[in-house]
Write a structure and sequence with these properties.
about 25% strand; 5-stranded mixed beta sheet; alpha/beta
Length: about 160
């Protein structure tokens, strides 16, 4: 597998999720399976089926998170020296050229993306348009309504 870029905060969130899955979710599923088994006949036991399905989900997610962490390339935005260029991990202030609306985004890995918290996936059309640009440049983004232009106001590494 190829390396997956993650910020330090994103990697920490995945580690916390993995810890929660292994120490809380897995034992509770095991207890639920034991409880359902004690009810007798497993062929018509909906609780047992639900607990086994939940166990499959938890174990699958544990494997997925472990895989992501083992293939992670952890990047600390504070240590970047990109000479003002927009790169992975950078926080970018942009202004819509049509409306004048200003917004701030941080470019993060796909697992960390959360538009409500102003975190853009590095694979998103907006982030791809911003990568490599400097403050003062215009980024063109192909949106469903046509091409949108954004001026890059500032690039920070925080």
């Amino acid at each position: 597998m190829s390396k997956v870029p993650l910020t330090v905060a994103g990697a920490e969130k995945l580690r916390e999720e993995l810890h929660r899955l292994k120490t809380i979710e897995r034992p509770s599923v095991i207890a639920a399976i034991a409880e359902a088994r004690s009810h007798g006949d497993l062929s018509e036991n909906a609780e047992y089926d639900a607990a086994k399905e939940r166990q499959g989900f938890v174990e699958g997610r544990i494997q997925e998170v472990e895989g992501k962490l083992s293939n992670a390339q952890i990047i600390d935005p504070k240590l970047l020296d990109a000479d003002g260029r927009c790169v992975f991990g950078a926080t970018v202030d942009i202004e819509d050229q049509d409306t004048g609306d200003a917004v701030t985004y941080q470019i993060v890995g796909e697992d960390e993306a959360d538009i409500k918290n102003r975190k853009l996936s590095v694979a998103s059309p907006m982030a791809r348009a911003l990568i490599g640009k400097y403050a003062g440049d215009i980024a063109q983004v192909l949106a469903p309504g046509g091409i949108r232009e954004y001026e890059i106001i500032d690039v920070r590494y925080e």
